[in-house]
Structures are given as structure tokens and as C-alpha cells.
Write a structure and sequence with these properties.
Length: 313
């Protein structure tokens, strides 16, 4: 099968593209190499994909003619491209165009394909709001521009399933970490601060926040399992993550244990819209896809530390 992965030079997208290639699929990546963080980090991911025989098309879902930029014989789309995270430096227009307008354009491209099997949208637990502990049937209450626009993108995709124009589903991911995690995210920043003897900026009160910290390999397991289960997944929202909860403080301690080094903390004002608790309810994923994440927090952190040392030390 021919598979398109958008946001393929990013964190989870690059891991998913690799896994799909290992499964024997013909994988085409797409990325606009946004300056949201250092482009050289995406180029590092691109290099790893290139070794697997995966080519990344540099294009922008918001503005480029996708029918000219992309092949016409794609069977599956895994849509990771988005304006990520909760950031005061990002405008609402950036969230709107990257998350909603871009998704609408990608849907239009998908509808033009002849032998298209499934559109897999990558959503987020931020759609639920400040307390992300619910099954998929609970009404979302997003509390950030990121969550609101990711919900909008998700519903644009699922609308086409409801209209029977294409098969589609959306996975809501929970607190993903691991090798290639973005530089502003928790574990990469913790590891960098520990190794470089720098202070880690800890949002006030966030050490008590509870998270379903989920290793990227376990997330990818769930995402790629949609292939071959198109009918089961069609029209569904499906949570992916671990059922185990850890506080941010426990995450800090896991990094300290793996590195054998204490991390200096600098408390900063709390971040508006930050989730207080996430706990993945994965009953549906277990039932539909036999989903079973296994990686412990310490095991995953050790993998991320090894990746960081290999590439940045």
C-alpha cells in the first residue's frame, strides 16, 4: 500500500513513517519544515527516514496545490502536521491555519484519490480540556487555542466519514515522549538541562500535574494498527496512551535516576490552558485494536536519554 504521512519530519510522524516502511508499505512523507523549532532537528529526522528509503516532500498544506505536489495513488493518509502545543508565542491565526485550514485542504486532496482506504487524523487529549480522563463519548471541553482547533480539525475529518465520502478516524494521543521529542517538551528539556547543568523552568504547581506519559513506540503501535481495520475504525474517535499515571515530579525523578544526576529547578508562573490531569481511557482501543501499551516510564526515559546523548553530546 502507498501511505502518506504528513508532518513526517516531526517527532511522532517520523516514528510512524519508519514503522510503516518496516511493515512493507511504500511511504511518502510531507513536511513544511516550520520554524516553530530548529529546522536542523527535523533534518536529523529526515536523515533517519532517508536511510529507510522514505522521501519527504517539502510542501505546505495551507497554501500549496496538493494535487500537483503529491502522488495520485495514495491509499492511506496519517495526518500529523499541525501547529503543536500550548504556546503564548503562537497566534490564534497560526493555530487556525495550520490545524483547520490545512486539514480541510488535505481532506480535499484525499477525496480526489481513486483507491483511498482510510484517513487517520492525529488528535490530542487536549481536546478534552483541563481534565483529560474520559472515554471518547464525553463531550470535549478544550481550554486552549490548540485544543479548540485540533477538535475542529478532527470534526472536519469525521464529517466526511459521516457523509460516507471516505473512511476516516481520529486518534487522541496522550503525553507522548521518547527519542526525537521536540526541544521544548518536558523530557527533552529535562535531559538537556541535566546534561548541560542548566536550570529547568518548572511551571508553578505543575510538579503535581498527573499525566499518562506514553512512550512513542507504544503510541505508534496503536496508530499503525488502523491498517487492516478500516471498517472497525471508520467514524471512530480512539484514545491512545498508557493507563498508568505519573506526576511531573515523578517524571523529573525518572530522568534524574537514569542520568544519576540532580536537576536544578527554576519555578516560573503557571501556563494558561495547561492540563491538570490526563489519564488515558483506552477501553475502546483495547476492544477494537487489541491495544496494549507496555513500556514503563523509566524504560522510555532511558531510550530518550540514549538518543539525546548519541545526537547532542
Amino acid at each position: 500500500m502507498k501511505v502518506l504521512v504528513t508532518g513526517a519530519a516531526g517527532f511522532i510522524g517520523s516514528h510512524t513513517a519508519e514503522r510503516l516502511r518496516d511493515m512493507g508499505h511504500d511511504v511518502i512523507g510531507m513536511d513544511n519544515y516550520s520554524p516553530y523549532y530548529d529546522k536542523s532537528l527535523k533534518k536529523l529526522n529526515e536523515k533517519a527516514l532517508s536511510k529507510k528509503g522514505i522521501t519527504i516532500v517539502e510542501a505546505d498544506l495551507r497554501t500549496d496545490n496538493l494535487n500537483e505536489a503529491l502522488p495520485k495513488d495514495v491509499n492511506y493518509i496519517f495526518h500529523f502536521a499541525a501547529q503543536p502545543g500550548i504556546s503564548a508565542s503562537c497566534t490564534f491565526e497560526e493555530y487556525l491555519t495550520n490545524n483547520i485550514i490545512a486539514t480541510k485542504n488535505l481532506i480535499d486532496y484525499a477525496l480526489s484519490l481513486n483507491d483511498f482506504r482510510l484517513f487517520v487524523n492525529i488528535g490530542t487529549s487536549s481536546i478534552y480540556g483541563l481534565q483529560a480522563t474520559h472515554p471518547e463519548s464525553v463531550a470535549p471541553q478544550p481550554a486552549s487555542h490548540y485544543g479548540v482547533t485540533k477538535l475542529g480539525a478532527e470534526q472536519l475529518v469525521l464529517a466526511k466519514s459521516r457523509e460516507k465520502q471516505m473512511k476516516a478516524c481520529s486518534f487522541r494521543l496522550y503525553s507522548v515522549y521518547g527519542p526525537r521529542e521536540r526541544p521544548e517538551k518536558l523530557y527533552t528539556k529535562l535531559i538537556a538541562c541535566a546534561i548541560n547543568d542548566q536550570e529547568f523552568p518548572l511551571y508553578e504547581g505543575s510538579e503535581k500535574h498527573l499525566r499518562s506519559f506514553t512512550y512513542v513506540g507504544d503510541i505508534v503501535d496503536g496508530i499503525v494498527s488502523a491498517i487492516g481495520h478500516e471498517d472497525k475504525c471508520n467514524g471512530e474517535v480512539i484514545n491512545l496512551g498508557t493507563e498508568r499515571e505519573n506526576t511531573t515530579q515523578e517524571g523529573i525523578e525518572a530522568v534524574e535516576k537514569v542520568l544519576g544526576k540532580k536537576i536544578k529547578l527554576h519555578v516560573t508562573p503557571p501556563r494558561p490552558g495547561d492540563q491538570l490531569r490526563t489519564k488515558a481511557n483506552i477501553d475502546k482501543a483495547k476492544s477494537l485494536l487489541n491495544y496494549n501499551p507496555q513500556t514503563t516510564l523509566e524504560e522510555g526515559v532511558a531510550q530518550q536519554v540514549s538518543w539525546y546523548k548519541e545526537n547532542f553530546c
